[in-house]
Specification:
185 residues; mainly beta; Cohesin domain-containing protein; Immunoglobulin-like; single chain; Cohesin_dom; eight-stranded antiparallel beta sheet; carbohydrate binding; signal
Length: 185
């Protein structure tokens, strides 16, 4: 009877205190946008760096940047994740997908390598100002990942999970493995 009473008291105590959660103790992950300049003239380019703070074993990411199509033209996007060792490939990136005023870019590492952790740059987006003779002020706020002319959102993919790239309209993706032959119909 004493054993049952002790177990009941212990169970009640653990229920009242709660169980420690590893995610509650982990640092919060945050993403931000940093522009290389605060003002641009027509024809100038601006580079936006998407960065992650407090990353934990990130193997891939998807970044969506919204921009004002009346003021900017999308030029390019590239991966900024650092390579691990000299022989390590930097992974695989999708071709940026432009849909209206949004650019989607994704990258994943490949092979049996670990993800990145800590504070790391993820991607660099390059835009060109359109309007001749006008200056455009960029107000990038990293905390909310938003700004007046350019904004964005980022989704980090931990190791062991898969990234589904966005589908391009009118195109179908087909898997071709080493034992399969591509058939053009």
């Amino acid at each position: 009877m004493t054993n049952k009473w002790t177990l009941l008291c212990l169970a009640a105590l653990l229920t009242i205190m709660g169980f420690p959660s590893p995610s509650a103790n982990a640092a919060a992950t945050a993403f931000g946008l940093d522009a290389d300049r605060s003002e641009v003239a027509a024809g100038d380019t601006v580079r936006l760096t998407v960065s992650g703070k407090g990353l934990s074993d990130v193997y891939g990411y998807e970044a969506v940047v919204t921009f004002d199509t009346d003021q900017f033209t999308f030029v390019s996007a590239r991966n900024a994740l650092p390579k691990g060792s000299a022989g390590e490939s930097n992974g695989f990136s999708i071709t940026p997908v432009i849909s209206g005023n949004e650019v989607t870019f994704a990258h994943t590492k490949v092979g049996r390598i670990s993800g990145v952790s800590g504070d790391q740059p993820l991607a660099v987006f390059v835009f060109q100002a359109k309007k001749a003779g006008e200056r455009i002020h960029l107000a990038v706020r990293s905390e909310s990942r938003a700004c007046r002319c350019l904004g964005g959102q980022v989704r980090a993919i931990p190791s062991g999970q898969h990234l589904d790239p966005p589908r391009q309209r009118g195109r179908r993706a087909a898997r071709v493995g080493p034992d399969e032959r591509r058939r053009d119909a």
